[in-house]
């Protein structure tokens, strides 16, 4: 099919080639624009994080307040840790060293609702078992923390099913822990501040791909679109005498 003629040359494209352009070019362009959208989202996230650092900590008395908080908001929780409701989150790393995160169930004083608190990191001993024993504070406490979404993208080799509160888990399954605890646990947890427990390490870096990385990916996808279209055009340009009516 002839699309354009210039002197003794013409641009002719076969139907399969035209179909490839119609299908592939929009996909490459859409991927490029999607990366630009991700870059804008990450830029907004970084702005929210900067704002959160300057906002005073909010006192949380009921779980419904969590929905009104900015990302990574600093909070004060008043209540108590529930005895026998602490578990170790396996395969957590701190400065390149393997260990566990200590995750405990915390009950708010005002409403007796409960949520998970990540109290910090504990190093792995010479052997995995027996598991390290962790003391949980008794009585009413006032806990300074950051609110973040519970990570749900952890890859595990086998699904874990428990019939009692587990001592060790590979990932946080909120449905299972809600069933075992008798509380409807929120999708956010509290990351305890550095002065909450001297026996644990509390460092909570925000590990996100920066917007500049997404801009780079966008350039790559747009570049592929240009190269693809250029190759199809160059391949389709032929001398008039070389074509017999495509």
How would you briefly describe this protein structure?
This protein is α/β, with parallel strands linked by helices.
Structural notes for this entry:
- The protein is an alpha/beta fold.
- It folds into two domains: about 70 residues; about 120 residues, no CATH class.
- Helix content is about 30%, strand content about 30%.
- The chain contains three helices and ten strands; from the N terminus they run E-E-H-E-E-E-E-E-E-H-E-H-E.
- The strands form two sheets. It has a five-stranded mixed beta barrel with strand order 4-5-6-9-7. A three-stranded antiparallel beta sheet has the order 1-2-10.
- Strand 1 and strand 2 form a beta hairpin.
- The C terminus is likely disordered.
**Domain tally:** 2
Based on CA atoms alone, the radius of gyration comes out at 28 Å
- Main sheet characteristics: 5 strands, mixed, barrel
So what's the overall shape?
elongated
The count of helical stretches stands at 3
Q: What is the distance, rounded to the nearest whole angstrom, between the alpha carbons of the first and last residues?
A: 5 Å
Helix % is 25-40%
Within the largest sheet, what's the order of strands? 4-5-6-9-7
Beta-strand proportion: 25-35%
Number of strands: 10
Estimated structural class: alpha/beta
Order of helices and strands: EEHEEEEEEHEHE
Low-confidence stretches: 242-246
What is the average of the pLDDT values? 81
